[in-house]
Amino acid sequence: SRPQKVCLCPFLPVHPLKVSTCLYIIQHPAEESRVLRTVPLLAACLPPDKCKILVGRRFNEDRYPELATVCRNPNTLILYPGAEATNLEEVAVVSSSPSVMIIIDGTWSQAKDIFYKNSLFRLPKQVQLKPSISSQYVIRTQPTNTCLSTLECAAVALSIMEKNKSIQETILHPLQALCSFQLQHGAQIHHSKEHLLKNGLYDKPMPKNKRKLRRMELLVNNIKI
C-alpha cells in the first residue's frame, strides 16, 4: 500500500516463512494510526495462521475466549522483559513442541499498561531476549540502544524458537528497506534516548516528574530499568 518507487514488496519473502511457532500480537489501538508500523511487515512475512493480531487495551476471558485458552496453554510464552522473565534461549533448549508466543505492540509505556492491567498475560511463561543486538529501526526513537521494535523482537524470537538464524535475516530485510527509503526521502536517524543523554545531545526540557527524571538518571548510568 505504498507508492511504487518505495514499495517494500520486493524485500518480502517470495512465500510466507514456514514456522511452527504461532505469534499473537497484542496491539495497542494507537499503533493502528501510525504510518511507519512494523507489524504489517511482520504479518506479510508469515502465514496468516501463524501471525494473529488482536487490537485493544483490555482483554478478558469473556470477550476473548480463544486468547484465554491460548494463555492457559503450557506451551504459550509471553515476551516481556523483567525480573520474572527467563531468557528465551534457555526455554528454547528444553522445548521441542510447537509454541505460541504473545508479543505486545505499542510504546514501552503502552506495553507496560497492557501487561500489568490484564491478568490473562500473567498466565503464560514470561520470557525475554538477551540485549545482544541494537535496533535497526533507526527512524523511531527507542529508550535504550538495545530496545527493539515489535518486528525485530519477533524476528529474533522466531529464529531462536525455530533454531534457524536465516528467519531473523529474512524478517529484518523489509525493515531495513523501509528505513533506507525513509532516510532517502528526508527522514533523520533517531538515536536512542540513552545515546542522546550520554552524549549531551538531548535537547528537550528535562521532565519535572521525579519518576521520569529518575528513569533518565538510570539510563545515563547504565542501570537496567
Can you describe what's shown?
The protein is an alpha/beta fold. The protein has one domain: Alpha/beta knot (3-Layer(aba) Sandwich), CATH 3.40.1280. It is built from eight helices and six strands. The protein has a six-stranded parallel β-sheet with strand order 2-1-5-3-6-4, with helices on both faces. Helix 1 (39-45) links the parallel strand 1 (22-27) and strand 2 (51-55). Helix 5 (150-161) packs antiparallel against helix 6 (165-184). The longest helix has 20 residues, at 165-184. The chain is globular. The mean pLDDT is 83. One of its GO terms (molecular function) is tRNA-uridine aminocarboxypropyltransferase activity. InterPro entries: DTW, DTWD2/TAPT. It catalyses: a uridine in tRNA + S-adenosyl-L-methionine = a 3-[(3S)-3-amino-3-carboxypropyl]uridine in tRNA + S-methyl-5'-thioadenosine + H(+). Its EC number is 2.5.1.25. Residues 1-187 form the DTW domain.
| Proportion of residues in extended strands | 5-15%
Helix percentage:
25-40%
Oligomeric state of shown chains:
single chain
Can you count the helices? 8
GO molecular function: tRNA-uridine aminocarboxypropyltransferase activity
Keywords: S-adenosyl-L-methionine, Transferase, tRNA processing
Catalytic activity: a uridine in tRNA + S-adenosyl-L-methionine = a 3-[(3S)-3-amino-3-carboxypropyl]uridine in tRNA + S-methyl-5'-thioadenosine + H(+)
Organism: Myiagra hebetior
